[in-house]
Write a structure and sequence with these properties.
This protein is 41% helix and 20% strand. The chain has 7 helices and 8 strands, in the order ααβαβαβαβαββββα. The strands form 2 sheets. Strands 1, 2, 3, 4, 5 and 6 form a 6-stranded parallel β-sheet that branches. Strands 7-8 form a two-stranded antiparallel sheet. β4, α6 and β5 form a beta-alpha-beta unit.
Protein backbone atom coordinates (compact mmCIF):
# COMPACT_ATOMS: atom_id res chain seq x y z
CA UNK A 1 0.00 0.00 0.00
CA UNK A 2 2.85 2.41 0.81
CA UNK A 3 4.45 1.84 -2.62
CA UNK A 4 1.13 2.40 -4.39
CA UNK A 5 0.57 5.63 -2.49
CA UNK A 6 4.00 6.86 -3.55
CA UNK A 7 3.35 5.91 -7.17
CA UNK A 8 0.06 7.77 -7.21
CA UNK A 9 1.43 10.74 -5.30
CA UNK A 10 -0.60 10.44 -2.11
CA UNK A 11 1.08 11.93 0.93
CA UNK A 12 0.45 10.91 4.51
CA UNK A 13 -1.76 13.89 5.36
CA UNK A 14 -4.01 13.17 2.39
CA UNK A 15 -4.28 9.51 3.38
CA UNK A 16 -5.14 10.46 6.98
CA UNK A 17 -7.79 12.88 5.73
CA UNK A 18 -9.37 10.17 3.57
CA UNK A 19 -9.31 7.72 6.46
CA UNK A 20 -11.10 10.23 8.68
CA UNK A 21 -13.77 10.74 6.02
CA UNK A 22 -14.32 6.97 5.79
CA UNK A 23 -14.89 6.62 9.53
CA UNK A 24 -18.41 6.45 10.90
CA UNK A 25 -19.87 9.60 12.45
CA UNK A 26 -21.34 8.94 15.89
CA UNK A 27 -23.30 11.65 17.70
CA UNK A 28 -23.33 11.74 21.51
CA UNK A 29 -26.69 13.34 22.28
CA UNK A 30 -27.14 15.22 25.56
CA UNK A 31 -30.71 14.51 26.57
CA UNK A 32 -31.32 17.33 29.04
CA UNK A 33 -31.62 21.10 28.72
CA UNK A 34 -32.40 22.07 32.31
CA UNK A 35 -30.28 24.55 34.24
CA UNK A 36 -27.68 22.84 36.41
CA UNK A 37 -27.79 19.63 34.35
CA UNK A 38 -24.97 17.12 34.66
CA UNK A 39 -25.33 15.57 31.19
CA UNK A 40 -22.39 17.62 29.77
CA UNK A 41 -20.10 15.95 32.34
CA UNK A 42 -21.35 12.50 31.37
CA UNK A 43 -21.13 13.36 27.68
CA UNK A 44 -17.51 14.46 28.02
CA UNK A 45 -16.65 11.22 29.83
CA UNK A 46 -18.26 9.18 27.05
CA UNK A 47 -16.49 11.19 24.35
CA UNK A 48 -13.09 10.88 26.05
CA UNK A 49 -13.44 7.11 26.17
CA UNK A 50 -14.76 6.98 22.60
CA UNK A 51 -12.05 9.24 21.16
CA UNK A 52 -9.32 7.07 22.69
CA UNK A 53 -10.50 4.21 20.48
CA UNK A 54 -9.85 6.03 17.19
CA UNK A 55 -12.48 3.95 15.38
CA UNK A 56 -15.01 6.68 14.51
CA UNK A 57 -15.60 10.42 14.49
CA UNK A 58 -17.41 11.16 17.76
CA UNK A 59 -19.23 14.45 18.32
CA UNK A 60 -21.25 15.80 21.23
CA UNK A 61 -24.67 17.01 20.09
CA UNK A 62 -26.36 19.26 22.65
CA UNK A 63 -30.06 19.66 21.92
CA UNK A 64 -30.01 22.90 23.93
CA UNK A 65 -27.93 24.47 21.14
CA UNK A 66 -30.76 24.13 18.62
CA UNK A 67 -33.45 26.08 20.54
CA UNK A 68 -36.17 23.76 19.29
CA UNK A 69 -39.73 24.98 19.95
CA UNK A 70 -42.42 22.61 21.17
CA UNK A 71 -43.46 20.45 18.24
CA UNK A 72 -46.58 21.78 16.53
CA UNK A 73 -46.62 25.16 18.26
CA UNK A 74 -44.93 27.18 15.48
CA UNK A 75 -44.83 27.32 11.70
CA UNK A 76 -41.62 25.26 11.70
CA UNK A 77 -39.39 27.89 10.12
CA UNK A 78 -37.03 28.34 13.09
CA UNK A 79 -33.45 27.81 11.89
CA UNK A 80 -32.73 25.38 14.69
CA UNK A 81 -35.20 22.87 13.24
CA UNK A 82 -33.39 22.63 9.90
CA UNK A 83 -30.00 22.59 11.66
CA UNK A 84 -31.18 19.73 13.89
CA UNK A 85 -32.36 17.75 10.87
CA UNK A 86 -29.07 18.33 9.03
CA UNK A 87 -27.02 17.30 12.06
CA UNK A 88 -28.93 14.06 12.55
CA UNK A 89 -28.76 13.26 8.84
CA UNK A 90 -24.96 13.55 8.92
CA UNK A 91 -24.64 10.89 11.65
CA UNK A 92 -24.31 7.12 11.22
CA UNK A 93 -25.15 6.26 14.81
CA UNK A 94 -25.77 7.72 18.23
CA UNK A 95 -25.08 7.43 21.94
CA UNK A 96 -27.88 8.93 24.03
CA UNK A 97 -27.04 10.42 27.43
CA UNK A 98 -30.33 9.89 29.23
CA UNK A 99 -31.44 11.08 32.63
CA UNK A 100 -34.58 9.76 34.30
CA UNK A 101 -37.44 12.16 34.99
CA UNK A 102 -40.53 10.64 36.61
CA UNK A 103 -39.66 7.14 35.33
CA UNK A 104 -39.08 8.34 31.75
CA UNK A 105 -36.91 10.52 29.51
CA UNK A 106 -36.98 14.31 29.63
CA UNK A 107 -39.63 16.21 27.70
CA UNK A 108 -36.86 18.10 25.89
CA UNK A 109 -35.36 14.87 24.54
CA UNK A 110 -38.73 13.48 23.45
CA UNK A 111 -39.51 16.76 21.70
CA UNK A 112 -36.15 16.73 19.91
CA UNK A 113 -36.58 13.12 18.82
CA UNK A 114 -40.05 13.87 17.44
CA UNK A 115 -38.73 16.72 15.29
CA UNK A 116 -37.17 14.16 12.93
CA UNK A 117 -38.17 10.87 11.39
CA UNK A 118 -36.31 9.75 8.26
CA UNK A 119 -33.06 11.14 9.71
CA UNK A 120 -33.15 8.42 12.39
CA UNK A 121 -33.97 5.40 10.23
CA UNK A 122 -31.54 2.51 9.78
CA UNK A 123 -29.03 3.77 12.30
CA UNK A 124 -27.79 2.32 15.58
CA UNK A 125 -27.81 3.75 19.09
CA UNK A 126 -26.34 3.07 22.47
CA UNK A 127 -27.75 4.41 25.73
CA UNK A 128 -25.91 5.70 28.78
CA UNK A 129 -28.38 6.54 31.53
CA UNK A 130 -28.30 7.89 35.05
CA UNK A 131 -30.69 8.41 37.92
CA UNK A 132 -31.61 7.01 41.33
CA UNK A 133 -31.95 3.56 39.77
CA UNK A 134 -29.35 4.14 37.07
CA UNK A 135 -31.92 5.65 34.74
CA UNK A 136 -33.03 2.16 33.71
CA UNK A 137 -36.71 3.05 33.36
CA UNK A 138 -35.96 6.05 31.16
CA UNK A 139 -33.75 3.87 28.97
CA UNK A 140 -36.53 1.30 28.54
CA UNK A 141 -38.95 4.04 27.44
CA UNK A 142 -36.36 5.36 25.00
CA UNK A 143 -35.91 1.89 23.48
CA UNK A 144 -39.60 1.79 22.57
CA UNK A 145 -39.39 5.21 20.89
CA UNK A 146 -36.26 4.27 18.96
CA UNK A 147 -37.87 1.07 17.74
CA UNK A 148 -40.70 3.05 16.17
CA UNK A 149 -38.12 5.21 14.37
CA UNK A 150 -36.21 2.18 13.02
CA UNK A 151 -33.19 2.82 15.22
CA UNK A 152 -31.42 -0.36 16.33
CA UNK A 153 -30.58 0.12 20.01
CA UNK A 154 -27.75 -2.08 21.24
CA UNK A 155 -28.05 -4.36 24.23
CA UNK A 156 -25.17 -3.21 26.46
CA UNK A 157 -26.26 -0.28 28.57
CA UNK A 158 -24.04 1.53 31.12
CA UNK A 159 -26.21 2.66 34.04
CA UNK A 160 -24.90 5.37 36.35
CA UNK A 161 -26.20 5.89 39.88
CA UNK A 162 -26.76 9.33 41.35
CA UNK A 163 -25.71 7.81 44.70
CA UNK A 164 -22.43 6.14 43.75
CA UNK A 165 -21.27 7.88 40.56
CA UNK A 166 -21.97 11.52 41.49
CA UNK A 167 -20.57 13.44 44.42
CA UNK A 168 -23.31 15.50 46.07
CA UNK A 169 -25.55 14.43 43.16
CA UNK A 170 -23.80 17.01 40.98
CA UNK A 171 -20.11 16.19 40.35
CA UNK A 172 -19.66 13.21 38.07
CA UNK A 173 -17.14 10.70 39.44
CA UNK A 174 -17.87 7.39 37.72
CA UNK A 175 -16.75 4.10 39.20
CA UNK A 176 -14.10 2.22 37.22
CA UNK A 177 -16.46 -0.72 36.70
CA UNK A 178 -18.34 1.26 34.02
CA UNK A 179 -15.33 1.27 31.70
CA UNK A 180 -15.91 -2.30 30.51
CA UNK A 181 -19.59 -1.67 29.77
CA UNK A 182 -18.72 1.50 27.89
CA UNK A 183 -16.21 -0.36 25.73
CA UNK A 184 -18.65 -3.14 24.94
CA UNK A 185 -21.49 -0.71 24.21
CA UNK A 186 -19.30 1.28 21.79
CA UNK A 187 -18.15 -1.94 20.11
CA UNK A 188 -21.79 -2.77 19.44
CA UNK A 189 -22.71 0.73 18.26
CA UNK A 190 -19.85 0.76 15.76
CA UNK A 191 -20.64 -2.74 14.47
CA UNK A 192 -24.35 -2.05 14.02
CA UNK A 193 -23.83 1.46 12.62
CA UNK A 194 -21.49 0.08 9.99
CA UNK A 195 -23.87 -2.73 9.06
CA UNK A 196 -26.92 -0.47 8.85
CA UNK A 197 -25.10 2.10 6.72
CA UNK A 198 -25.37 -0.39 3.85
CA UNK A 199 -29.18 -0.01 3.97
CA UNK A 200 -29.21 3.74 3.52
Amino acid sequence: MGILNKLFGKNNSKIEEENEMEKLNIGIILGSTRQGRVSPQVGKWVKDIADSRGDANYEIIDIADFNLPFLGTTDGTEPGIAAWSDKLASMDGFVFIVQEYNHSISGALKNAIDFARDEWANKAAGIVSYGSTGGARAAEHLRGILGELQVADVRTHPTLSLFTDFENFSEFKPQDLHQDNMKLMLDQVIAWSGALKTLR
